[in-house]
Design goal:
With about 350 residues, the protein is of the alpha/beta class. The protein folds into 2 domains: about 120 residues, Rossmann fold, CATH 3.40.50; about 180 residues, Dihydrodipicolinate Reductase, domain 2 (2-Layer Sandwich). The chain is about 40% helix and about 25% strand. It has 11 helices and 15 strands. The strands form 3 sheets. A 7-stranded mixed β-sheet has the order 12-11-7-10-9-8-15. A 6-stranded parallel β-sheet has the order 3-2-1-4-5-6, sandwiched between helices. Strands 13-14 form a two-stranded antiparallel ribbon. Helix 4 packs parallel to helix 5 and helix 5 packs antiparallel against helix 11. The two termini are about 40 Å apart.
């Protein structure tokens, strides 16, 4: 059983605690670190069976019984803690983004490579049952060669303006998942992006310097096209759909709902709305990514999502940001790692 330490117990840290306790028996939560140990956090640590509870995350790095750490702290700490943890001999699972600086991401990649330890990044949608079914269909060439990838990703509710100011913007915070998904589904790199954004949901998001609605056109190596549309608010629930069109056919996925029951009467046809919160939709995906991380550590397999995947997704998100700002297509070679 892998002994893990969890650094940061905000929303995403609690997701991983919940996921491990309810569906990942291969892991034991040995330690939890949070800068402010409130009674609620201490109670959470006790319920998780953590024997080590500390305000300083370095206490987890010093514990020789901890094999791996999960970095769930604020974004601006991810890269530095990643480097410290790897140098302390710990395998690392780091929530995305590794950093908003490409140079810092590259530094983490270099340290991980030299360490020989496992370093996985939390792009949880790759482990969702719906998206995995899409990838399997494409890999088995059931729809022939991929020609168009369409992804719709809309949050149920907009974030606060405070969150927006520290998030890096819609493209780096939200679209980055969809950009990674295009790479994952197609197995191809993206060569050019053309993005446009507007403020149509919340004026406060605009005042914070961001957009809340976006559309992106992608050109993939080999000629296939990608289309992404994002919104910070879908009043009917968390909207996550995708369609892949190929030379031999098409495959698509819809939204998960509390049930698939459809009521048909003389008054019309009714079905339940999509799940409203991303944790409802993706908790099994969080569990599966953790199981695969543990499997990679215990059996010395390559991690399914590595530092380079994080780097490429961040590069693409930055290209989208530039494209929307300058109103033109941006080629990926315009954004070298060393320039950011």
């Amino acid at each position: 059983m892998l002994q893990v330490g969890i650094i940061g117990v905000g929303r995403i840290g609690q997701v991983h605690i919940r996921g491990i306790l309810s569906g990942v028996p291969q892991a034991k939560i040995r330690g939890i670190a949070a800068p402010h140990l409130t009674p609620a956090i201490r109670a959470l640590a006790q319920s998780a069976g953590a024997e080590l509870v500390a305000e300083d995350y370095r206490a987890l790095l010093r514990d020789p019984r901890i094999d791996a750490v999960l970095i769930c702290s604020p974004t601006d700490t991810h890269a530095a803690i990643s480097v410290e943890a790897l140098r302390a001999g710990k395998h690392v699972f780091c929530e995305k983004p590794v950093d908003l600086s490409l140079v810092k991401i590259q530094t983490v990649i270099d340290v991980a490579r030299k360490s020989g330890l496992k370093y996985q990044v939390g792009f949880n949608r790759r482990f969702d049952h719906n998206f995995r079914a899409l990838r399997k269909t494409i890999a088995e060439e059931k729809i022939g060669s991929v020609q168009v990838i369409k992804i719709c990703s809309r949050d149920a509710e907009p974030p606060s303006a405070k969150f927006v100011r520290s998030s890096g913007g819609l493209f780096l915070d939200m679209t980055v998942h969809d950009l990674d998904m295009v790479r994952f589904l197609s197995g191809c790199e993206i060569e050019e992006v053309y993005a446009a954004g507007s403020v149509l949901v919340d004026p406060a998001i605009g005042r914070a310097g961001d957009v809340d609605t976006a559309a992106i056109v992608l050109k993939l190596r080999g000629g296939a096209l990608g289309l992404i549309d994002n919104s910070r608010q879908a009043v009917y629930g968390y909207d996550q759909r995708a369609e892949i069109f190929g030379s031999l056919g098409c495959v698509s996925i819809g939204n998960d709902a509390p049930s698939t029951a459809v009521l048909s009467t003389a008054d019309g046809v009714q079905r339940e709305k999509p799940l409203r919160f991303f944790l409802e939709r993706y908790l099994p995906a969080f569990q599966e990514e953790m199981r695969q991380f543990i499997d990679a550590v215990e059996n010395d397999y390559p991690v399914p999502v590595g530092g380079n995947d994080a780097l490429q997704a961040t590069l693409l998100a930055m290209a989208c940001t530039r494209s929307a700002r300058e109103g033109r297509p941006v080629r990926m070679e315009e954004i070298p790692v060393s320039s950011c």
